[in-house]
Amino acid sequence: xxxxxxxxxxxxxxxxxxxxxxxxxxxxxxxxxxxxxxxxxxxxxxxxxxxxxxxxxxxxxxxxxxxxxxxxxxxxxxxxxxxxxxxxxxxxxxxxxxxxxxxxxxxxxxxxxxxxxxxxxxxxxxxxxxxxxxxxxxxxxxxxxxxxxxxxxxxxxxxxxxxxxxxxxxxxxxxxxxxxxxxxxxxxxxxxxxxxxxxxxxxxxxxxxxxxxxxxxxxxxxxxxxxxxxxxxxxxxxxxxxxxxxxxxxxxxxxxxxxxxxxxxxxxxxxxxxxxxxxxxxxxxxxxxxxxxxxxxxxxxxxxxxxxxxxxxxxxxxxxxxxxxxxxxxxxxxxxxxxxxxxxxxxxxxxxxxxxxxxxxxxxxxxxx
Length: 369
Ligand SMILES: Nc1ncnc2c1ncn2[C@@H]1O[C@H](COP(=O)(O)OP(=O)(O)O)[C@@H](O)[C@H]1O
Ligand SMILES: [Mg+2]
Prior knowledge:
single chain; CATH 2.40.50.140; binds magnesium ion; 5-stranded antiparallel beta sheet
């Protein structure tokens, strides 16, 4: 097992004309489940390929524990590059390929056999992993005789029996249907916790990140927008991008003018609570962006500190309702956890004033604690 450290890493696919990763710095703790999250093309796979040793950064350093895997300190003897097969990593991708002519047991044993591990030891490890993944009853089948979810579990098992110090997964559940994805996700997290392997998991899916990660690294255009625990990032997004990327449905954003004691959105006004006053003082008379999550409203009867709007549509979720409310030109999404959908055509939404997210209108950076 190992911590992973990345220092000042730059990566280019065109010899330095442009950079896909620009000065990336990252600390992944030993045994942590770290998720690289971000929209397609932001550089998640690129970063993972550098850690795996499949790609050479232009500059920077990657360490596993104290051991330098990649150091691209210019030409000459400073340069270190440990090849992938010597990094003791295991990788699973979306397009994993099991050996079609081998049984599950043979698939899982193959890498250990090539490494000349003793027969009893192979059997012990393979059986243990089969038990962990609940695939013991499938050991004599071939991949064609397995469902997608079962194949994916075999792929995970085949990677994990090698007892890697680092486990790398790139969108590994993308091919599975929603229900299976939830199940494999749960099992993967459980196994990772039990084995304590330092794991990096690449996904564009915020739900996967929120449910599995100890540490989320949210990227955009080759830069880290914020990193932290799922709770920290959901409760205190550092900027509007992070606020919008985490949480479903998306956070509601309003443009507001900061007046003496109120935030004025034109269509509604909110009194400024004590705890935001200091942060808002420099913005007096200016516009800011106010973020309110769909679940941070309550229904009210009276108009004070409320947002009035007309119900456009209601989607039942089973345990709650998503209510789309027209407020002036804007559609506000409200997640209502009541037992019955409200019958009124007009609603008064009162935001939870403890949970406002305030952003600078120009930089889009968070301005309140
Ligand atoms: N082999 C490659 N050659 C040139 N450009 C690439 C290559 N692989 C990825 N890119 C570019 O690098 C950027 C980051 O890609 P990638 O790391 O695959 O993103 P992600 O995994 O976050 O979707 C994208 O703009 C992509 O087009
Ligand atoms: Mg990718």
